[in-house]
Every structure is written in structure tokens, then in C-alpha cells.
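Figure 2 data, in text form.
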Amino acid sequence: MPAIHWFRRDLRVADNPALDAAGPDAVAVFVRDPRFDVGEVRATYLDGALAELASARTLQIHAGDPAVVLGELAERLGAREVFCTADTTPFARKRDATVEDALAQRGVTLRQIDTPYAVPPGELHTQSGGGFRVFTPFYKAWLARGWGSPATTAPFNQALNRWRAFRQGALSQYKKARDFPADPGTSRLSPALHFGQIHPRTILAEIPDPLTDPFARQLAWREFYADVLWHRPEAVWTSLDERFDTQMEYANLEDPVTAAQYEAWTQGRTGYPYVDAGMRQLLTEGWMHNRLRMVTASFLIKDLHLPWQLGARWFLPHLVDADVANNQISWQWVAGCGTDAAPYFRIFNPVTQGRRFDPDGDYIRRYVPELADVADPHEPGVLAPDYPGPIVDHRVERDVALARFQALGSRASS
């Protein structure tokens, strides 16, 4: 009786314990669930990832409710076990519980082995037994716990090749270069990590000193956010500091001026070149440099005074690496309402951020071609005939944001 391996966020044959446990004769399956819209850019990436996986081993692709598809397939094959890598998002946990129950009714066991993380979410606890709310103690516990070696090796895939090219090249300068979006200082591995084309322990095993390496620390941030969401699944759309949902004053999106400002933000037409460059990179590439993710998020929340959920909802279908935990908890970090959050009064100045991390304006000129010939593309104003003026005055809106935060604090203490 063959087993079934259900591929999800583990689209690789190397270092895949669940696939190994299913055995060499396992029937490999991927199920497209119509209830889960991954967005156009991720759908295109997923097609490529599945094609690469299918070139490495035989793969069946089905569409429908996984509980039904897998149950019917197991019945046809006479399979008694379905193996998969556990997925830890709130949606996935509910889905998998439903699939497990449906399979059990047919006498089939769902076996979840491993996760997309070096340390499984929910495994680390504070001394009081709860989840970590601050990164640094989580990071210390994460390092102390450690992780296993890669389960198996296999012929190179594209993600592994990309990681090794980065390791041999830009990794040594990562700590400094990663903040400069015009330079190739980041790995661009986030989509591969999201879809499981490479496992983080494969990367950690090839970092000379993961206990001190800044790239390993960034992997730990990814795992911290997944752990936060494990303990607080409501954080997908609810602020961890609920005052920001119930008491904070926001702009009204039904107001035509506010609606026009939001539309300008989505299209990279705010009149702030560094913000616009980031938003246009998102639209053209389905990816945005992390420095710009913080700057553009801050602009929406603290210059346009709109809730973080609105920005997170825009990012999800447009990012090829849209990981629910990373996206939602990062937006809460910028908003100042999340766990281990940046203080609300930390407001990114889009002009000084650009001057500091894109000093020659190369990044701006790459994504805002109207400013290609402008001597100084940083300062908002009438920079080019076909480029808009600033939609708000950052200095004024910064004061508004601070006043609203102070009012929120006053209401909480009264």
C-alpha cells in the first residue's frame, strides 16, 4: 500500500523529513485549494516552483477541497497514511484539522512531520510558560535550543544554488549592505523560504557561525513572528494592542481626499520619491526591499493615518513572498501595536531615509523613471512635469500622528 505525500510549503526533495518518511514509492500530490487565493504574482511563482518540483519527481496536481481530494485519492490507491510538513498559520491549522478528521473517517491517518522553520513555532516558552513577546529573549532561547542537521541531500535546485551564490558573495557584507536597496545586498530567498524550496536549517548548516551571523539573526526574526502568530492567531487582523483597533483615531477612507491619498500610495504616486520607488518595486516585481517595507508602511500609518490592516491587506496579494506571519506582525511592528513593537513615536522620515540609504538616488531613479535626470531626487516638490507633488506635508502629519498616539495613551490611563 503506497503512502501519499501532500506537498504544501515544502516544495523540495532535499531535506524534507515528511517526504522521506512517506517513503520512495509515495504518491506525491499538490492540491490547489480554490478557497485560498494566493494572488496573481504568487500564483505565477507557485507554477514555476511546482514545475521545478515535478522535474525532480513525479507529481500529481489536483484542484479542490484537500479533505475530499486526498480522501478520494487514498481510497483509490488503498493508502492508509498521508504525510505532510506541518503548516502553522491559523488558516492552515484549521484546514489540517478538518483534513485529519475527514481522512480518519476513511481509516486514513494524517501524519504531520517537521515545519517550515528551524525551531517549530510554539516550542519555545518563557519561564512562565507563555509565548515570547520580545525578540531578544526569544532569540537567546532559539539559539540555545538549536536545530537539527539537514535530513537528506539531493541534486541542487534553484533555491539552493541561489543561497550558495549569496553565501560565497554578499553574505560577508550582509550586515552593512542589507539596508541599501540599490545594491544587491540581500539574498532574495524569501519566496523560496515561504514555499519551502529551501529549508532554513539547510541555510543555517552552511553558515560558518550561526550564533553570531546577522543573516542567521534575520532567519530568527522570521521564526519569532511565526511563533507570535502560533500563540496569538487573532493577530492576523487584530492589533495585539487592541487599543489601536478600538480607540485610535484614523482617517476616514470614505472621505474622497483620504481615498485619493490611499490610491496614490498604492500606485507609488505620493510625491515622496523614496516611498514611491518602494511601492512601484512592489507593483513591478512582486517584491520590496525590507527597508522600503518599513518606510512605506510608516507613511501609510503615520502620514496618511490609516490602520495597518489596510496596508497589510494590500501587500498580501502583491508580494511573491507574502508570508502571513511576516507580513502581519511586521505591519504591527511599524504601527507600534504589536509584540516587540517599535514605539509609535518612531516615525520614518521618507526624505532622510532616502538620503541615508539611497544617497545617490540610484534606487529612486530605477523605479521612478520620471526622476532619472533630476539632480536631487530625494526632496519632495515639483521635481518633474509628470511627477506629482507631495500629497501631504510629512512634518505636519508627524505631529498629528504623535498627538493621536498621546491621546490614545491618555484614554488608556484615565
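Caption note: Strands lie at 4-7, 27-32, 60-63, 81-84, 109-112.
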